[in-house]
Design a protein that fits this description.
Radius of gyration: 33 Å
Number of helices: 23
Number of strands: 10
Oligomer: single chain
Structural class: alpha+beta
C-alpha cells in the first residue's frame, strides 16, 4: 500500500472513530438529531472506506473531501463562539480544537465596560467572550480557598523549574506553572501537553508527542516542546484577557461547556461562576458532576493576592521578581525606618548590567557573585570575567544562562540577606525573639566581601558604612535588636551603639552590666546569666573589644552567636557564626 493510500485510510479511520463516539454520546443523551447526524456520517465514511478497499482510490478521495468539507462547515459555524450562538456539531472534537487567531484574539481583546456587569446569584449574564467581566465579577468560594492557596504555593515553590523552561522566551513562568497544575497536578513526571506520563510519547490528544527523541523525556524538554506546540512562544500580549483566553484555548474551547454555555471549570472552578458539569472520561460529558480541580483564574487571583504576580491598571500582568527566591515570605518585606534603610538600598535592583557597565551597582553584583561562590574581581567594572560568572550562576539556577543581570537573578543572588531580615514568629520574651532572629541571620552565613570589613552584609549591619575601621560586631547585635523589636511590635528597649565601649557605658549607666566577678562560679553563672544576653570581651578595665549574644550557659564555657568573628582570638574576623567562649575576661549585659 502506498504512503498516500495509507494516509487516506488512516484519516477515514480517525473520522469513523469520532463519528462512532459522537453516535454513542448522542444515544446516551437521548439527542435524536445528533444521533441521526452521527449515523449518517458513519455511513458516508464506511462508503469511502469500501471504495478504497476496491482500489477505487480517486473516488474514495472525492468522498473523503466531501465529508471533510461538511466538517469544515460545522467548524465554521462553531467559530462564532465565544460570541453568542453555538453549534451542536456532534463531530467536533471536544478537546484541543482551535479557532482562528483573529477570532480568538478579538474575543480576548474586548475591553471591559466602565462598570462590570452585576452577577445575580453567582450566574453571569452572557459570559461568552467577556473574560474581563467574568474576572471582575469573580468571587472565590470560601471552601475553595485552601485549594487555591495550596496551588499558589506550589507555583512559587517550583519557580526555578518554570523559569528555566521559559528562559529566552516571552512566556511568563507563572502561565506555564498554572498549566502544569491543570494538566499534571504539579507532577514533574508528566507531559505538560496533556498530563500523560513522560515514560512514553503522549497517548491522549494530542497523541504521539513529541515527535523527536526517545522516551523517557525529561520534564523541561517536554515542557519546552509543549510551549512550541501550543505556539505560546509566538505570543507577545500577556494582558489579563489574553492570558485567560490562552488557558481556555490550551484546554480546548469547542466542547460541551461552549454548547451548554457553562463557564469552563478549567478557568472558573472554585468561584461562583461555575457550578457543575464536566468530562468524566474521554469525550463523555456529565452535566451533573462538578469539577474538583481549582481553576486557572482562581489560582492566578490567589497569586496576585499573595504578591507573586501583580495586575496593573492597564491589565498588564507582571511577575514579582522576588518569586524567583521560591520563598513566599520574601514576596513582600517590611523594612521600616532608619534601621533598615541601608538594607533596602542593598536589595534594590541595580539595573540591567552587562559588559561595559561601570558603576557602584556592578560592584554590588560582583560582591553577591562572590558571596554565592562565583568569584571574580570586585572592581566595579563589568568585564568578561563578571559576564562568565553571572552566566554560570544563571545556569546553576536552571536557566539557559545570562549575559545581562535581570531582576529575577538579582533576587536570587541577594536572597540570603532577604531571608535574614524576614519576620520571625516572636518568642515569649525579647531575649528569645532576639535569638530567633540571630539564628536566622547566621543560617545565611553573613560574610565580608571585597576587603576587610566590607561588603553588603557589613553595610547592612553598619547602616551603609564599611572599611577597615568599621568593626561590625556591635552593628550586628544592634540590627538583631531592631529586627526583634520590629517583629514583636515594640520599641527597641536599648540604644543602638556600634562601639563596644559605648555599649558597655550604656549598660553600666542603666544597671544592666554584669561583671565577670559577679558570675565567678558555675552556680552564679546559672542563676544570673540567660540566653539572649550579650557578652563583651574585656581587654582592660576601660576597653572592651568585641560583643556577641549568649546562646547557652554552661558551667565552664558558653555558646555564642556573634558577628565580625573568626579572626585572631575570634575578633575582627570576616563572618558571623556560632562560637563557644570561656568565661575569663568576659563581662555580660542584660538586654532589659
Amino acid at each position: 500500500m502506498t504512503q498516500e493510500r495509507m494516509a487516506i485510510r488512516e484519516r477515514i479511520e480517525d473520522l469513523l472513530y469520532e463519528a462512532t463516539l459522537a453516535r454513542d454520546i448522542a444515544q446516551a443523551k437521548g439527542d435524536a438529531a445528533a444521533l441521526e447526524a452521527a449515523k449518517a456520517r458513519r455511513e458516508e465514511l464506511k462508503l469511502a472506506k469500501a471504495l478504497l478497499a476496491r482500489d477505487e482510490f480517486n473516488e474514495a478521495v472525492v468522498a473523503l473531501q466531501v465529508i471533510e468539507a461538511k466538517i469544515r462547515d460545522h467548524a465554521a459555524a462553531a467559530e462564532k463562539w465565544p460570541f453568542p450562538s453555538s453549534t451542536n456539531d456532534p463531530f467536533e472534537p471536544p478537546e484541543k480544537a482551535e479557532f482562528s487567531d483573529a477570532q480568538l484574539d478579538a474575543a480576548a481583546a474586548k475591553q471591559p465596560s466602565a462598570e462590570p456587569a452585576k452577577v445575580a446569584a453567582g450566574k453571569p449574564a452572557g459570559w461568552s467572550e467577556d473574560y474581563q467581566t467574568l474576572w471582575d465579577t469573580m468571587e472565590i468560594r470560601a471552601d475553595w480557598r485552601d485549594d487555591a492557596e495550596f496551588a499558589a504555593r506550589k507555583v512559587v515553590e517550583s519557580q526555578k523549574r518554570y523559569a528555566a523552561v521559559v528562559s529566552g522566551a516571552t512566556v511568563p513562568w507563572w502561565f506555564v506553572a498554572i498549566v502544569h497544575c491543570m494538566e499534571c497536578g504539579f507532577k514533574f513526571d508528566r507531559h505538560l501537553l496533556n498530563g500523560d506520563p513522560l515514560s512514553g510519547r503522549t497517548v491522549r490528544v494530542p497523541a504521539n508527542q513529541p515527535p523527536f527523541g526517545s522516551p523517557p523525556y525529561d520534564w523541561e524538554t517536554a515542557a519546552r516542546y509543549a510551549m512550541t506546540y501550543e505556539e505560546l512562544d509566538k505570543i507577545t500580549d500577556w494582558s489579563l484577557p489574553n492570558v485567560l483566553n490562552r488557558w481556555h484555548r490550551y484546554n480546548g474551547v469547542k466542547n460541551e461547556y461552549q454548547r451548554r454555555k457553562i463557564p469552563t471549570p478549567y478557568l472558573w472552578s472554585g468561584c461562583y461562576h461555575y457550578e457543575k458539569g464536566k468530562y468524566t472520561r474521554d469525550r463523555y460529558f456529565d452535566p451533573e458532576v462538578p469539577s474538583k480541580q481549582v481553576g486557572a483564574a482562581i489560582i492566578l487571583k490567589t497569586l496576585i493576592e499573595m504578591g507573586a504576580v501583580s495586575l496593573g491598571a492597564t491589565n498588564v500582568l507582571k511577575a514579582n521578581p522576588l518569586a524567583a527566591t521560591e520563598n513566599l515570605s520574601l514576596l513582600s518585606h517590611d523594612l521600616p525606618g532608619a534601621a533598615f534603610k541601608s538594607i533596602e538600598q542593598e536589595l534594590a535592583f541595580p539595573g540591567a548590567l552587562k559588559v561595559g557597565s561601570s558603576s557602584l551597582g556592578v560592584k554590588r553584583l560582583q560582591e553577591w557573585l562572590h558571596l554565592n561562590g562565583y568569584y571574580t574581581s570586585i572592581d566595579g567594572d563589568f568585564g568578561a570575567s563578571t559576564e562568565t560568572m553571572l552566566d554560570r550562576f544563571a545556569k546553576a539556577q536552571g536557566r539557559i544562562g545570562a549575559k545581562v543581570l535581570d531582576e529575577e537573578l538579582w533576587a536570587v543572588l541577594t536572597a540570603p540577606l532577604r531571608r535574614a531580615v524576614t519576620k520571625v514568629v516572636p518568642g515569649a520574651s525579647f531575649e528569645e525573639t532576639v535569638l530567633k532572629v540571630a539564628r536566622q541571620h547566621i543560617a545565611e552565613r553573613p560574610k565580608e566581601a571585597g576587603g576587610n570589613n566590607c561588603g553588603p552584609w557589613v553595610r547592612a549591619y553598619m547602616r551603609g558604612a564599611e572599611g577597615a575601621d568599621q568593626l561590625w560586631c556591635a552593628g550586628f547585635t544592634s540590627l538583631i535588636f531592631e529586627q526583634a523589636a520590629r517583629d514583636m511590635g515594640i520599641k527597641v528597649p536599648l540604644k543602638r551603639q556600634v562601639g563596644v565601649d559605648a555599649l558597655v557605658a550604656d549598660a553600666k549607666a542603666s544597671g544592666r552590666f554584669i561583671a565577670e566577678s559577679e558570675v565567678g562560679t558555675p552556680l552564679l553563672r546559672a542563676s544570673r546569666l540567660r540566653p539572649g544576653y550579650l557578652f563583651v570581651i574585656r581587654k582592660d578595665a576601660k576597653d572592651w573589644t568585641h560583643v556577641g549574644f549568649v546562646l547557652s550557659v554552661g558551667a565552664t564555657s558558653f555558646d555564642t552567636i556573634e558577628g565580625n568573628t573568626g579572626g585572631e582570638g575570634g575578633v575582627d574576623g570576616d563572618e558571623a557564626r556560632q562560637n563557644n567562649r570561656s568565661y575569663p575576661s568576659r563581662d555580660f549585659i542584660r538586654l532589659i
